[in-house]
Design a protein that fits this description.
Blueprint (H helix, E strand, L loop, with lengths): L7 H4 L4 H12 L5 E5 L2 H10 L1 H12 L7 E5 L2 H11 L4 E4 L8 H10 L6 E3 L2
Parallel strand pairs: 1-2, 1-3, 3-4
Length: 124
Amino acid sequence: MTSIKLPDSLWMSPGYGKMFQGFQDLMKFRIRNILLVSSLYDLYLFEEDGRLYELIREEYRGLNLSHAPELTRVSSGMEALRLAKEEKRFDLIITTPHIEDMEVSRFAKMVRNSDLDMPIVLLT
């Protein structure tokens, strides 16, 4: 068996190391569990269309990541706060403008004022 030494230029192009390091730096912020807060109607639309989960899965596949995050769906802000505080497994909260029991701005303030340290994304 003959071994061939490939030129270094095939292994790493200029700037590749910095780009790869940037990607590795982002991996420590990997999202594993998402809490989705929206009205029952919006939850129904997400289920029917499968849009949100499919978009997330396609993004992960495009980045060659093996596991897309798990989605937990709730319809009320109070239930979302309870779950997030009790289970402490969520990395991100995604909410729609319409949730069952409160204005979304009030929900965001309640999350910020609690001991939860996680980002909130508003889908519009």
